[in-house]
Amino acid sequence: MAKNSKPKQHARRHSEASNAPSEPSSPNKMEKPAEPTQKESAQAAYEKKKQTFITRTIWTFVMIAGFFVALFSGHIYIIGLITAIQLVSFKEVISIASKEKKKHEGKKEPNLRFTKSLSWYFLATTMYFLYGESVIYYFKHILLVDKLLLPLANHHRFISFTLYVLGFVIFVGSLRKDTYKLQFQHFAWTHMALYLIVVQAHFVMNNIFEGMIWFFLPAALVITNDIFAYVCGITFGRTQLIQLSPKKTVEGFIGAWICTIIFGFFITNILIRSKYFICPVNDLGANVLTGLECIPNPAFVPQPYSLEIFGLDKVFWIEPMQFHVLGFASFASLIAPFGGFFASGLKRSFGIKDFGESIPGHGGITDRFDCQFIMGFFAYMYYHSFIAVYKANVGDIIETAINGLTVDDQLEVVRGLSKYLFNQGAVSESILECLTSELKR
């Protein structure tokens, strides 16, 4: 019995020791939190992509809705939209110049006197010049008969030049020895942004004044091409198109071109039926409900085309615009995407993914409109080269009379017009007598 008691006591002490509460471990011996497993990491990545997709989709519909509301509300709202896009895009592009500040890490950030403010001054000066040119060209019949606005219209270009030179002098006067490179870099970036964004956007605005179709059609073709490039690329894409955009494929590029041409014929056939789209702006207060009235451009009027060249004795009627849209669709598919490639190269050179975060889920405004600016520029040049009909208008005649005739000659023109209108039955004899008597000198 004595021999068996010691093993039992030892077993009892061992059991009590094992049941005793353990002492808290020291901080140095705390276990690290378990790293997420591969499955958890994949789930987190999926949730992030899902949230990004939802945000991107919501804002896509918001942008589409906002665009069509502005489009149907009237030309002045579209002009306001283009102006806002100009301002935000300009801000995003010139902000890239600040990337050079990384070279000054650990040092006090240099105080660039006037340099950043001058970027916005040059923007305001450029917009004053370009907007003024458009307003004077399209609304000279209003400006040139106003006593206050006439001097501004006649001397607009000299005023714009004076404002620019003033900014140039201030910039040179603000140069400092220790910040030469940064200041000239900012100056160069500013002027690049003015050319690539503001100047090209100016031609987009002129397209609006010529008729809403010259704004909407090019923009719609670029968007359509972008969509079909993605669809055709993921469906048939095999061959890489360009190193700047590894996901772009030759098959997607060609497929999008074909689909854009087909869409162009379809959408053009709809747009040319509406005078709201094809008429030049003669009333900035017009909208899709009030509409516009004009004599349609011959490009929108069906013309006969013979098939004799193909050995067929037949004639078919079609609007010339249906042939012009082939050029628009081809440029939107083959050239405009290089505006996006240019932007991609610019971002890669500075190691950034997007120009900004103006649009949740989409990046910056510039990221969405990098192809639109050059497309709008092309539309302006193509329209004025092959489609526009040049003829005298009221603004041109008033400008010629004001700047090229003396006051006596101007009075003689009014008297002659009054007699002509009386003979045409457009004015009464009492009005003719009143004008004849009052205009005698």
Automatic annotation (TrEMBL):
Membrane association type: Multi-pass membrane protein
Main location as per UniProt: membrane
Entry annotated with the keyword Transmembrane: yes
Organism domain of life: Eukaryota
UniProt-listed Enzyme Commission number(s): 2.7.7.41
Transmembrane regions: 53-72, 78-97, 118-138, 158-175, 187-205, 211-232, 253-272, 323-343
Comp. bias regions, Low complexity: 17-28
Protein name: Phosphatidate cytidylyltransferase
Lineage of producing organism: Eukaryota, Fungi, Dikarya, Ascomycota, Pezizomycotina
